[in-house]
Amino acid sequence: MSGAFRNWQGWPAMVAFVAMIVLPIAVRAGDSLFITDHDINIMLVVAVILLAVFAATRPDANAAGDAALLFGAHAAGALTLWFLPAAVAAGAAAASAASAAGSSTFLARLAAAPGFWALALLSWLLAWQLVSRLALLRGQSPASALILKVFVPLLFGLWLLFLWEVIVRGFGVPFVLLPPPSAIGARIAASTAILIADFEQTFLKAVLAGYAIGCLSGFLVAIVADRVAFLKRGLLPIGNLVSALPIIGIAPIMVMWFGFDWPSKAAVAVIMTFFPMLTNTVAGLAAAQRIDLELLQSYGAGYWQTLFKLRLPAALPFIFNALKINSTLALIGAIVAEFFGTPIVGMGFRISTEVGRMNVDMVWAEIVVAALAGSAFFGVIAVIERTFTFWHPSYRRRA
Q: H or E element: which one contains 111?
């Protein structure tokens, strides 16, 4: 890929920069405000952004250009948030009251103008090229490579949140349809105790218990099925059948069997994780090379020696694949099960009740907690997998 094609964002960023200068950046009390109308501090920020635009237009990447992009993109983002209109459809009345009362809040009296959207587009283009350049960097040491591996997706995620905030607030999207990230963050900060209690009830009790029981039992049954041929032929079709069962059909039954507390949610997680582990383990046990099996047999190895020394190590990628899949399935199953009866605590309970109250910021706060918990759980399993399957070809580094 040529450098000009990689840096295509540069010239559109230049056009957006010019539009930001010549077009009004905001409208206040019917008067158009231009970015050049502000004090020296704003103009210094504009100068930093201009350096980043020039760096973005250059086809060759270098450390100075990357640094200019880093500072310029974030300066443009900060300036965008500064001029971001505070009045949205759901809060128009409150903003009008604040303006009528002579509020000194600058953002409360702003309305979006073409120059603002040019600035927002400029910020996104610079951030896009910055992330693209950083993604091409290779660390000179394992530590620097790890930092880049974590920093680049984190930076990209923060800019996605920035885009979400600008679009939702700038276009006045109703709060009940999609709240901005700032409102979700404020709800998380204000409801920390509730979110922690819900996390403990759903994840630490139901998810972990159901995950452990389901995965362990699926693994043990797979070992037995591998030893007994008719079980293998009979259980795998049943596993495919159970995997197709809807959660909303299983959850009420489990609630009737095990009660309204977390054991019924753990039971749903067991059902959802048992058969993926069973099928993956059976497939992994059959993955050993025939030549390796014949070699061990020629040494007089029995079934259990062959199992522990060859077949289980060969099955580890399949087993960890099931563990990673189940880390999300168990969480989904427990949350959905809480929709059908639970004590007054839990992620699923909170989502179902707050939706009815139109408290969508609390719903999104629970979604964020669930997403973070599921991602962290998946990441822990992935790290453990890397430790035990370092020999697998997918982890071998090219010289």
A: strand 111-112
Q: What is the mean pLDDT of residues 211-226?
A: 90
- 288: helix, coil or strand? coil
Burial status of residue 308 (CB atoms within 10 A of its CB: 0-12, 13-18, 19 or more): exposed
The first and second tokens of residue 117, run together, are: 């959207």
Amino acid identity of 286? A
CATH 1.10.3720.10 range(s) for the chain read 190-395
Q: Which pLDDT does position 112 carry in this prediction?
A: 64
Put the strands of the sheet holding 111-112 in their side by side order. 31-33, 26-28, 111-112
CA 273 – CA 333 distance, rounded (Å): 9
**Is 26 strand, coil or helix?**
strand
The H or E element that residue 349 is part of is helix 347-356
Would you state the CATH architecture of domain 190-395? Orthogonal Bundle (1.10)
pLDDT, tens only, 355-395 = 888 889 899 999 999 999 999 999 999 889 888 877 766 66
Q: How far apart are the first and last CA of the chain?
A: 23
**Greatest C-alpha distance within the chain:** 91
- More confident: 102 or 317: 317
* Token pair of 154 as six digits: 């984190």
Please tell me the least confidently modeled range out of 143-152, 217-226, 238-247: 238-247
- Evaluate the CA torsion angle 379, 384, 385, 386 in order and state its sign: positive
Q: Is the pLDDT of residue 179 over 70?
A: yes
Is the sign of the CA dihedral 11, 12, 17, 21 positive or negative? Answer: positive
Residue 32 bridge partners (DSSP)? 27
